[in-house]
Amino acid sequence: MSSQNKSTFGDRLNEWKLFLWNSNKNEFLGRGGKSWALITIFYVIFYAFLAALFCITMWVMLQTISEAKPRYQDRVSSPGVMIRPRGFSQSKGIEVTVDPKKNATVMKYMSMVNEFFSRYQKEQHDVKDCKDGEYRKRLKEDAEMPACSFNLSLLGDCADPEREYRNGTPCVYIKMNKIIGFIPGNGTHSPQVSCEGHKGADIGPVSYFPSNKKLDIKYFPYFGSKYDRHYLQPVVAVRFENLPLNQKSAVECRVTGASIKIDENRDKYLGRVIFRLQRID
């Protein structure tokens, strides 16, 4: 190619200047004023249509969603079980260490229990005494539900957890997670709590409060945070009377009921909870 056909830097710069603004044709970036006006109008209409379509789609979807409960509840159809108080070992799950001689350890767990108890100790204005052995019923579809009262005196000696911990007979408190509309039992049979050594571990004798070990069905079903703001979960306290000294004991507590699943491999807390207790001398 001859040197005459090669464009110089100045030529290329002039071409760019001409592309940016062509004064002979009154064009900016290759388009005249009418062309820019038409394409601007097109994109305004196009994006306005997309925005309107998005808003309509969201509006239609929101009409199908209830404020009272999730549309789909099939992912977790059976409740999990948890304990209070609880400490966490990063590699071994839930672990509670009881050292009656170490005040800081006792108070750490007492603060957890007191926080848990606080909801039951507050003055509740929308609470009533419900009849044992009967499920809760809604009289009006959109009315707020009064909570069924749960008196901490039902927890017997475990209503004073600090005394029990200092005596070396720790209490743990078993509760089920809330699931909207969940019915745990069959007829008038309430679900029951039972605890034993996991895989044959020695945990010594245990006592239950209340002694019938029941999570009474009068606390079920739960109707969701919108209509059941003051809901109180039933609790069963388990006291470990003679834990082996200076060793970690694996404990498995189960809640059994007609509608409660246990031994699900994908969720080890479904219907049960496994934790470790250690009493230090």
UniProtKB/TrEMBL annotation:
The chain crosses the membrane at residues 36-62. GO terms for cellular component: sodium:potassium-exchanging ATPase complex. GO terms for molecular function: ATPase activator activity. One of its GO terms (biological process) is intracellular sodium ion homeostasis. It is found in: Membrane. It is a single-pass type II membrane protein. It comes from the Eukaryota. Keywords: Ion transport, Membrane, Signal-anchor, Transmembrane, Transmembrane helix, Transport. Its main location: membrane. Belongs to the X(+)/potassium ATPases subunit beta family. This is the non-catalytic component of the active enzyme, which catalyzes the hydrolysis of ATP coupled with the exchange of Na(+) and K(+) ions across the plasma membrane. This is Sodium/potassium-transporting ATPase subunit beta.
